[in-house]
Known about the structure:
Layout lengths: L10 H25 L2 H75 L4 E8 L9 E3 L12 E6 L2 E11 L4 E5 L6 E6 L5 E6 L7 E7 L11 E4 L11 E10 L5 E8 L8 E5 L3
Antiparallel strand pairs: 1-2, 1-12, 2-5, 3-4, 3-12, 4-5, 6-7, 6-9, 7-8, 8-11, 9-10, 10-11
Amino acid sequence: MRERGDGGVRPEAVLAVLLVISILFMIFTGVFRERYDRNWGSSFVLGVQRVTGSAMERIKDGFGSLKRLREMRLQYESALEKLSDYQGLERNVVELRRENDELKRQLGYSASIEFEHIPARIIARDPSNLFASLTIDKGTDEGIRVGVVVTAFQDGFSGLLGKVVTVGKYSAQIRPIIDPDNFVAARLQRNRFEGLVEGRGNENGELMMRYVRKSAGTSIGVNDLIVTSGMKSLYPPGIVIGRVKEVRSREYSTSLELVLVPIIDVTKVEYVFILGIL
């Protein structure tokens, strides 16, 4: 009896063997009836035939069940693949809806900006370096130039992000305000005391406002807004920079230092607006 390549017996071979056995029993029946008692021989052979017939039916049913199991397994694997595809489509739809909602918010902010501006999208950043420049998808072809101011809209607030430091034909790099090399003339929005904001260079992305008059100490509170002053600066006045986190007063110093939390989280921003484009 031949065996299949995978180690199993071929169903056709089993059926052929059983068929040969049945034919031999049929021949044996004729011979047996001539030499022995007809009734006893017929009963014996019929019993054997019933047993072999029942065995053949069970074997056929067994092979049929195996075939159906294989078909069910293939159908199950196909269903799993389709389910995976549907889950991928669902994730894509959720992301598209989120992006669509964000674009609507950005468009609303764009319509409210008083200055000439160009919207852009951040296309590259270094996640390991908080102070690294951000790359946007607009360049000289869109009128972008070095030194122009960059703002962003995030979580319902608009604020200063930084300025453009290098420009190519189709892209540009932004230096965020949290960079220690950035300096912005600023004032407290509520009481109008002025100072100079710079990046602290720490991993929290905080800012420091220096040279604030000591007499302003009693009128400064946590969460007070800091905005650009526009004094001797490329930054237009009134752009929100951040909120006061801590007020520091040193005995030997004639001014206050304010620790600020930027209004725009540089690590999460996706869209920006370039101001001052003519």
